[in-house]
Specification:
single chain, mainly alpha, elongated, disordered N terminus
Length: about 200
């Protein structure tokens, strides 16, 4: 192997290494994110949930809480609770008078029911706002269409005012026929008058 070839090979290796090794701000060892691939999902300490699914669930619960069925079932449960803890043997009673555990359960149910009802109302308000916006846009389009049709009808009326109607044509034809008859009558009288004037001149001679 000659030294010229050896030196040329070393220079080629050095150029390849220079191309592969970044310099400056990109010289860090962090891998570059590829733009043609999605990012890997990040791990979060807080659990994720679907707000739409939770909102639909809250609306179902709020609708159930606002029905007579829920009131009936809650009344039945409270009556059974009180009767059991009053008439059952002492060893089987789980909530003695004054029913502190029952009060705790009812307050817990109310504390969860109130936010769920508020969440359902907020979702209903959002839907109402969207519906009102759509109704407003629909009304604006209807008003614009009505104004356009009104202008078109007015233009048609103005155009029809300049168009010859059947009655007008009939009246014009009647006037023309009368004028033609008058001309015929006048043309028929002129020769008779001329003949009379000629006979008078002959007599005079």
């Amino acid at each position: 192997m000659t030294p010229e070839r050896d030196g040329g090979g070393r220079e080629a290796v050095r150029e390849v290494l220079r191309e592969r090794s970044p310099a400056g701000a990109t010289a860090t060892g962090r891998p570059r994110p590829r733009l043609d691939q999605p990012r890997a999902p990040r791990r979060r300490l807080v659990p994720e949930w679907d707000p739409e699914a939770f909102g639909r669930l809250s609306e179902r619960i709020a609708r159930f809480l606002g029905t007579g069925r829920f009131i009936v079932w809650m009344t039945v449960v409270i009556i059974l609770w009180v009767v059991w803890n009053v008439s059952a043997p002492r060893d089987l009673r789980f909530d003695q008078y004054p029913f502190i555990f029952l009060t705790l359960m009812l307050s817990l149910q109310a504390s969860y029911a109130a936010p769920l009802i508020l969440l359902a109302q907020n979702r209903q308000d959002d839907r109402d706002r969207v519906n009102l916006e759509q109704d407003r846009k629909q009304n604006e389009r209807s008003i614009a269409d009505t104004e356009y049709l009104t202008r078109e009808i007015a233009a048609l009326r103005m155009g029809l005012g300049e168009v010859a109607t059947r009655d007008w044509i009939r009246s014009e034809l009647q006037d023309l026929t009368k004028e033609l008859e008058d001309r015929r009558r006048s043309d028929g009288r002129l020769p008779v008058a001329a003949e009379r004037s000629g006979t008078r001149e002959a007599d005079d001679r």
